[in-house]
Design goal:
The chain is an all-alpha fold and about 190 residues long. The chain folds into two domains: about 5-85, no CATH class; about 95-185, Tetratricopeptide repeat domain (Serine Threonine Protein Phosphatase 5, Tetratricopeptide repeat, Alpha Horseshoe). Helices cover about 70% and strands about 0% of the residues. The chain has ten helices and no strands. The protein starts with a helix and ends in a 5-residue tail after the last helix.
Length: about 190
């Protein structure tokens, strides 16, 4: 399978050279539009490669209407790929714990949007799933959503006090360490 860099190089090889190449018949605006089309194409290919098929499909279909001839077939190929991927049955998990493991794998590989979606799906089906709230709190900490992190962690601790001990040792909460509200949550004053 070709990578986007290889495909981009192939497509660019077919495009006019940028060294004082003659401006296409459409004028200077046409040349700029072609460059923009290649940039949109590259962004859409990255979406495909990261598994964001719906977004990629939308971007490719929009691009297809104005794509230069060198991109049309490639756009059609990726549109077909996106449609095929979207037609497959959605992921199913035998248990909420296995669904959680998948969400954590998405988090650990940097697919934050997908991880958030899966943590929320777990909570939709199992509102008392403290581990999903804990996962969301981790994600919120990593992505800089302080308020959401505090709210989700507080709820996770409320449902399962062992989450307080786990959070104390979890390096993923590093961005929260200097926040007094976080410290108070992990080390509450005992009356």
């Amino acid at each position: 399978m070709l990578t986007s860099n290889t495909m981009t190089q192939d497509v660019r090889g077919a495009a006019p050279s940028r060294k004082k190449a003659p401006i296409p018949a459409g004028g200077a605006g046409s040349h700029a539009a072609t460059g923009a089309a290649f940039q949109h194409y590259e962004a859409a290919v990255q979406l495909v490669q990261s598994g964001k098929y719906e977004k990629a499909l939308t971007a490719l279909e929009k691009l297809l209407a104005t794509a230069p001839p060198a991109l049309i077939e490639r756009c059609k190929m990726y549109i077909s790929t996106c449609k095929r991927q979207l037609a497959q049955s959605p992921l199913t998990f035998p248990s909420p714990e296995e669904h959680y493991d998948y969400a954590v794998s998405q988090l650990n590989t940097g697919y934050y949007e997908e991880a958030r979606e899966h943590f929320n799906r777990i909570l939709d089906e199992h509102p008392q799933a403290d581990y999903a709230l804990y996962g969301l709190a981790l994600l919120d900490s990593i992505t800089g959503h302080t308020q959401d992190c505090l709210r989700n962690l507080a709820r996770a601790i409320e449902l399962n006090p062992k989450n307080r001990l786990q959070a104390r040792a979890d390096n993923d909460f590093q961005s929260m360490v200097d926040d007094p509200r976080f410290t108070e949550l992990l080390y509450p004053e005992v009356p």
